[in-house]
Design a protein that fits this description.
29% of the residues lie in helices and 26% in strands. It is α/β, with parallel strands linked by helices and 348 residues long. It has two domains: 115 residues, Beta Barrel (Lyase, Ornithine Decarboxylase, Chain A, domain 1); 190 residues, Alpha-Beta Barrel (TIM Barrel). The radius of gyration is 22 Å and the shape is elongated. The protein binds pyridoxal-5'-phosphate. Pyridoxal-5'-phosphate (PLP) binds next to loops. InterPro entries: Ala_racemase_N, D-amino_acid_metab_enzyme, D-ser_dehydrat-like_dom, D-ser_dehydrat-like_sf, PLP-binding_barrel. This is D-TA family PLP-dependent enzyme. Belongs to the DSD1 family.
Length: 348
Amino acid sequence: MHIDTLSTPCVLVDIDRVKANIGRAQTYANTHGFALRPHIKTHKIPAFARLQVEAGARGITCQKLGEAEVMADAGLDDILISYNLVGIDKLTRLAALARRVRLTVAADSPYTVAGYNDIARAADVSFDVLIECDTGGGRCGVQTPEDALTLAATLGGGARFAGLMTYPAAGKTAEMAAWIDRALAVFSAASVPVGTVSAGGTPDLWRAHTTPGLTEYRPGTYVYMDRSQVAAGAATMADCALTVLATVVSKPRPDRAIIDAGTKSLTSDLLGMEGFGHVPACPQAIVSGLSEEHGILRAEHGLPEIGARLRIVPNHACVVSNMFDHVYLVSGDRVLDCIPVAARGRVS
Ligand SMILES: Cc1ncc(COP(=O)(O)O)c(C=O)c1O
């Protein structure tokens, strides 16, 4: 089957590029002696998680319990949920999951730790806990290495302290490395072993080896890559595995063409760039605007005619994954399969 037979808009995933991206990152991690724990929020597809583990990944990372439950159902058995799980509903599900897989969760507050300690005791389960550290990313995380040590000391019973976790801001590897270095000194002075030091983020994936003490890295977007990763220098357009296939449905002026992919396909993420995607077949075109179901392509000349079908590299592949029930696996222009995005929409 050729991609021209597919109804648009739809998502194409080039399996050859996926395999190359997985292999390249795993080889890099192996070369530098740290583990990979890929973040599946990018693809949300168990078969791709299995490919990552078969290539050598230690396990997987999920952002949400719902994603982790889908992956556990599919047989993935070593899962980090890189999120503070708060509330009895989540803790009850956490306990159920801890009985099925080797589970690790994140905590950055006494509130979260108390919930983990209580559920481990009440449900008689054990799981690992990483203290999340704000090493410059400005999102979750304890603010100092001393706070990390104090919080780690409050874990007990089945909720076991297993190490440190951080999600640094893109381009801030050096700051993160300095923070981790100080933290390891603080833990060492207190004679508290730190088993895992986990960082993540595709923009700085290829700099991961410059952080002494790092034991694992959690890249997510690397599996597909996207326009933002090309802009960050982490990939080339030739590495981008996920594209949105769209059709030109209107050409009101020579310098404006309208495609059938809007925010519900490409998402409204700009991530600091101009335009909402890259059109390899018409590189001079800018995807200058989107409404829900329309995308506006602008170029002085050479815009495609009505009926033309275009592959668009989105700015942010992970959120595109969350918009579609299925993706088409392709090799070049050949459609190989149609597979469900099983963990799509599992945001709780
Ligand atoms: C905690 C955490 N780890 C890892 C990642 C993976 O980042 P990237 O998709 O840039 O590889 C993310 C992305 O949101 C994240 O939030």
